[in-house]
Amino acid sequence: MMDILTLFAPEGLTGPGLWLPLVWAALLAVAVAMYVVADGFDLGVGILFTAARSETWRDRMMLSVAPIWDGNETWLILGGGGLLAVFYLAYAILLPALYIPLLVMLIALVFRGVAFEFRFKADASKRVWDYAFHYGSLLATFSQGVVLGAFVQGFEVDGTQFGGGTFDWLSLFSLTTGLGLVAGYGLLGATWCVMKTTGDLELWARRKAEHFLIATIVMMAVVSLWVPFLGLDIERRWFSYPNVVVLAPVPILTGLTAFAIWRSLRGSGQRAPFFLSITLFLFGFLGLAVSLFPFLIPPSMTIWQAASAPESQAFALIGYAVVMPLTFVYTAYAYWVFRGKVAEDVQSSGYH
C-alpha cells in the first residue's frame, strides 16, 4: 500500500502528513456517496412527480420520502463542512469556480423543501407546489450533474486561487453529465417507488424505472468513453498495461449490475431494483475515483497539496469521528421506523 502511495504523494512525505489526507479523502468520499444515494432517490421521486397519473399517486410518492428527505441532506453538510475544514485551498478554488451552478442548486433545494411543507396544507394551490417540487428536484439534480462534470474536466488554477472565468463550468461535457445525473436519479426514484408502493403505482414505477435504466446506461457509456480523453492523463491510467487488466472488473461489474436491475424490474423483485441501482451508482463513483485520484482539483492540486496542517486535520477528525457515526445511526433508525410500503388509501395529510 505504501509503495502505491509513493507514486502519488509528494517525495519525502511521511507520518500523519502522508496518511491523514488519505483518511479525510475517504471520509469525504463516503459523505458524498451517501448524499448522492440518499438524496438521489428523493430527488428522483420529484423528477417523476408531475408524470404521476393522479393526485393520490403523488400523495403516496411524496409520503414515501417525507419522513426522511431532510435527514438525507445532512450528508451534503458533512461533505461541504469537511471540505472547508480540511481542504480549505480546494474549497477556496471550487466555490468561485462553481458559484452559479451551486447557487442554482441551493435555490432549487429551497423551493423543493418549501413545497414539501406547503403542499400538505394547500388546497387550491396544491398543483403549484406539485410543480415546485418537480422542477426544484429536476433543477437541483441537473445542477449537481453540471458541478460533477465541471469538476471532472478540471479547473484553471493560478497559484492557490481559481484563475478561470465565471462560466468555465459551462461546457458540453458538464451539460451531458447534468443530463446523465437526471437519468440516474430518475432510476433511483423509480426503483424507490417500486419498493415503497403497491398496485398500479408500483407497476407504473417499474415501467419508468426501465426507461430511466436505459437512459442511465447510455449516459454512463457516453461519459465513460469521454472522460479518458479530457487531457488529464486518464486514458493511460485505464488503458495501459497492466492497468487495463486490473481495472477491467469495474466496467464488467457495472454492466452486470445494470443487467441484474433489468431482470429484477421485469420480475417480481421489490427491493432488489433499488439496492442494485445503488450498487450501479457506487460502481460509477468508483470509476470516477480511479480516474481522478489523487487530484482534488484536477489536474493540478492533489489531496496533499490542498490539505491543511496535520494538527488541524487531527483536531477536525475528532469531531468527525463523533458526528459521522451518529449520522449513520439516526439515518438507519429513521429508515427502520418508516420501513414498509405506503398504503394505497393514505391521505396527503397523513404525515402531518
State the gist of this model:
This protein is an all-alpha fold and 352 residues long.
Task: Explain what the structure shows.
The protein is mostly helical. It has one domain (22-337). Helices cover 74% and strands 3% of the residues. The strands form two sheets. It has a two-stranded antiparallel ribbon. The chain has a two-stranded antiparallel ribbon with strand order 3-4. A hairpin with a 3-residue loop joins β3 (295-297) and β4 (301-302). α7 packs antiparallel against α8 (126-153). It is globular and about 65 Å long. It starts with a helix and ends in a 15-residue tail after the last helix.
Question: How far apart lie the N and C ends?
Answer: 52 Å
Computed over alpha carbons, the radius of gyration is 21 Å
Number of domains: 1
- The chain-level structural class is mainly alpha
Helix content: over 70%
Q: Outline the biggest β-sheet.
A: 2 strands, antiparallel
Strand order in the largest sheet: 1-2
- Contiguous helical run count: 16
Give the low-confidence spans: 348-352
What's the number of extended β-strand segments? Answer: 4
Beta-strand fraction estimate:
under 5%
The average pLDDT score comes to 87
General shape: globular
H and E string:
HHHHHHHHEEHHHHHHEEHH
Key words describing this protein structure:
352 residues; mainly alpha; two-stranded antiparallel sheet; 16 helices; 4 strands; globular; disordered C terminus
